[in-house]
Write a structure and sequence with these properties.
Blueprint lengths: L3 E4 L4 E4 L4 H4 L2 H11 L2 E4 L4 E4 L2 H9 L3 E2 L8 H4 L9 H7 L10 H10 L4 H4 L3 H13 L6 E3 H6 L1 H11 L6 H12 L8 H27 L5 H7 L9 H14 L2 H17 L3 H4 L3 H14 L5 E6 L3 E3 L3 E3 L4 E5 H4 L34 H18 L4 E2 L18 E3 L1
Helix pairs in contact: 5-12, 8-19, 10-14, 11-12, 12-14, 15-19, 17-19
């Protein structure tokens, strides 16, 4: 069976998301979708998907759609299955996640957290990120080879977000383990064993975070977690459950996508043969290079939304309250109506913003931090290891939502 089959007269598309021909190189499939029907009904998913840049950008901001649905309808009303008992701990950890909430709850929680993630606050982390980047490279430079994801790409962002929160550095191996096991839930049709494992990880993560929060209450520090514990908005503070959910989200989202983006960016630059000296010659050149990496090799390819009421969209699409739609961020980033020669990596490109961090209400709160980490860590890596090259062709993860590598072996 081919990875992709398109009937452009009915706008019905069959995509085998587990086919390596698709998940290893989705840009080729996106080019066919853009050419034939950028709005389509994905047969295997039984829902409408949108690939065009303007469509995706507009729907990310459209308040007729939300990340949550049970605040405006019951499961019975929507015909949804009841919660799975074996996912109780996972669901509890997700319940107050900023990623899943809608106003007014989202507004209240985001306001309490947002101050720590504005650019002027994040800029203060510059020396820490630079120092840690050099220290990590010091640990493997003399070896002449490295598996970059574990030795650098994973360690850097999780260490920085843990420091921001005031969580001990020695916890980072556990944080990475819990995070990896939880995010496997976001692939299509996770197995029962994946669900059980994610629930166990969630339970252990929750226990640990409750202990850390209790310690912060007794011994406040100058860190984000203490700020979240003590901050008030209209006389309200975050509940224990909210603190646990938000901290877990910040730790997971604070490194998971950045890990993939570092790996994808390094592979892309090495594959295309650009001179790192040219790519990172000035701050302006570095910024354009990083934004082109985010566009061309995005780590997150799908974001989903619920219709919060019956909705009529252009092109004759009727949605019922509770219907889900899929927004293909990775496809929007290579829309030929927005970007010239979109499937080519062109570091000097300056044709408008990518949608890799989303848009609208749920625009990634950690975008300033991720951008700073990428703008500092990648130039340092290429400066320190100018002869760096791929040891072999890296395997792409079999996880379409998150486009990233299994490992990235480099030699010099």
């Amino acid at each position: 069976m081919p990875a992709l089959a398109i009937d452009d007269t009915t706008r019905r598309v069959s995509i085998d998301a587990r086919n390596p021909a698709f998940f290893r190189a989705p840009l080729a499939a996106y080019a066919e979708i853009h050419a034939q029907c950028p709005t389509f009904f994905w047969e295997e998913r039984q829902q409408w998907y949108f690939a065009g840049y303007d469509q995706v950008n507009a729907l990310l901001r459209d308040r007729r759609f939300g990340r949550q649905i049970l605040h405006v309808a019951t499961r019975e009303e929507l015909g949804m299955d009841p919660p799975k008992p074996h996912l109780k701990d996972f669901d509890a950890l997700e319940e107050h996640s900023l990623l899943e909430l809608e106003p007014p709850a989202h507004t209240r929680l985001r306001t309490l957290v947002n101050r720590a993630f504005v650019s002027r606050q994040i800029e203060q982390l510059r020396p820490d990120i630079e120092q840690l980047s050099h220290a990590l490279i010091d640990g493997f430079e003399a070896d002449g080879e490295v598996e970059l994801l574990k030795a650098f790409a994973e360690t850097l962002p999780v260490t920085i977000i843990a420091r921001m929160l005031g969580i001990p550095a020695e916890a980072t191996p556990d944080l990475l383990d819990w995070s990896h096991r939880m995010v496997r839930m976001y692939v299509f049709n996770p197995s029962h064993e994946t669900e059980l494992d994610a629930n166990r990880a969630s339970a252990d993560f929750t226990t640990y975070l409750r202990e850390i929060i209790a310690d912060k209450r007794r011994n406040p520090g100058d860190d984000l977690l203490t700020h979240m514990i003590t901050s008030e908005k209209d006389g309200e503070r975050l509940s224990e459950e909210e603190l646990v959910s938000i901290t877990a989200l910040l730790l997971n989202a604070g490194h998971e996508a950045t890990v993939h983006q570092i790996g994808n960016a390094v592979k892309t630059i090495l594959d295309t043969g650009y001179s790192a000296k040219d790519l990172f010659v000035t701050n302006a050149a570095t910024t354009l290079t990083i934004e082109e990496c985010l566009r061309f090799a995005a780590p997150l390819h799908i974001f989903q939304r619920y219709a919060l009421s019956d909705v009529e969209l252009d092109e004759g699409i009727s949605l019922r309250k509770g219907d889900k739609i899929g927004l293909l961020l990775g496809a929007a980033n290579v829309d030929p109506k927005k970007f010239s020669d979109p499937n080519r990596f062109r570091p000097g490109r300056d044709e408008g913003a990518n949608v890799s961090f989303g848009a609208g209400l749920h625009f990634c709160i950690g975008a300033p931090l991720a951008r700073l980490e990428l703008n500092l860590a990648l130039p340092i890596l290429f400066q320190r290891l100018p002869r760096m090259r791929l040891k072999n062709e890296p395997e792409v993860k079999d996880a379409f939502h998150f486009h990233g590598l299994e490992r990235l072996d480099l030699v010099w």
